[in-house]
Automatic annotation (TrEMBL):
GO terms for molecular function: serine-type carboxypeptidase activity. Its EC number is 3.4.16.-. InterPro entries: AB_hydrolase_fold, Peptidase_S10, Ser_caboxypep_his_AS, Ser_caboxypep_ser_AS. GO terms for biological process: proteolysis. It comes from Metarhizium rileyi (strain RCEF 4871) (Nomuraea rileyi). Belongs to the peptidase S10 family. Residues 1-18 form the signal peptide. This is Carboxypeptidase. Residues 19-41 are annotated as: Disordered.
Amino acid sequence: MRWTLVASAIVSVALVSARDPGGRNTRAPPSPRARAHSGVPFDKWTRDGQRAKFKGSKTDKYIVNGTGIPYVDFDIGEAYAGEMSISQDLNGPDKFYFWFQPSPNPEAEKEIVIWLNGGPGCSSLEGFIQENGPFMWQYGTFRPVPNPWGWHHLANVVWVEQPINTGFSTGTVTAQNEEDVARQFMGFFKNFVDTFSMQGYKVYMTGESYAGMYCPYIANAMLREEDTDYFDVRGMLIYDPSIIEHRMTDVNLVPFVDYHRNLFPFNDSYTQEIHDIDEKCGFAAIRSKYLTYPPPGHLPSPLPGINPDANTSLPECGPHYLTNSVQEAITDMNPCFDVYQVATTCPLLWDVLGFPGSFDYLPKGASVYFDRQDVKKAINAPLNRTWASCGGPVFVDGDNSPPSSTTVLGNVIDRTGNVVIGHGALDFILLSNSTLMAIQNMTFGGKLGFQQPPTEPFYVPYHSNSDLGTLAGAGVFGTTHTERGLTYVVVSLSGHMVPQYAPSAAFRHLEFLLGRVDSLTSKKPFSTND
């Protein structure tokens, strides 16, 4: 989920106490639209009894009691979790922790979706509990609730904490680059497939943030094996991905601030200052030339703002100088500014994982959910391991791999013809235009970048979900474009973690990835409709 550098539609529901002396009316949730969808009922396919699809002698030690998870007062169904070796030595010391949620959906046979969070060093249990798992426990909410937008309603899903030293995953940190990460993961995944007898399953890589490095490198390594028993990669979906060098945030920041000027209400002098830096450092010029369709060529190296004689950045043009300046300025005005969702304001909500927004924060008396001993026991986690949302290190001395868009991502697109890159419009830590510039700098399908700009409307089917704990938006929800096996979609009102802020939109993205709908512009109902 996170970068360690530092909603669905936003729905205002005015629930006013009947004791309110002002006599204001309580507004009910909006009436359902035609062809409505309520999200997937939690027991849609299990009302006549749960069928354990993967129970067996090899899997018994990983069984999670779906009615025995602390604070979860409903049955989440068939589930498995625990540590698994990443090597041929099944008792080896290096292990990944995983949570596997089989799908009760009859269409999910012979498919497995892999979800990875980013960081590097951030736990995929973040995604599990606050994005696309079977239950959700969002910032500031009282208890976990069933997730009608959980991805297991569409496919079998496994959330994996990786590389070594992420979350509950234990062992010796040896990874120096993404090829090492891929080798670790493939060792784990082969053991996972053998344990759950999933040979020949279609594999879909998904993730967010630094998983923009993890997923393409892992998918490329899997494809290179030419082994469809274990590594039959059929597609990839990555959100707000790290696929280009970090300086691109500086390059694209000023137009982002201008566009969202009501969220960045700077005075005239500071506004002029950042515009002067944008011009002086050549950022405006590089956008004008290279954020075009089709692109004129590859981005220059080095990027503008570098003194070629000394091979150093000009002071105001250095990496993150502009980004840090803007973040400091807006934080003075909005102390709860969230780099992951720029519309966030105070108060700072508590987070059961201890990491709401941009902050490590846990109110007095609260505890981090996955670090509780009763939770660890219930989910087969190591009792002597301290769990943190983001930790590490997971590399010996940082990740020395080049960005995935300049190396392996194009090949994954060409080999699968089924890659989706999604981006939340309100993300600050990784900007949507930076992702577009990465696409315009990448060769796939025999051409450089998109030949046409994204202009088509991304549509989320209307639904009648009025449960105030799981509200999610519908209608035209952003912009999308598909060329030569790559689909790009920007998601309105969403921050960095798209399945968290826009769960119905992410549900539609997964339907598209799995081939359940033929386009993100389609107005067809969700495939899970009754």
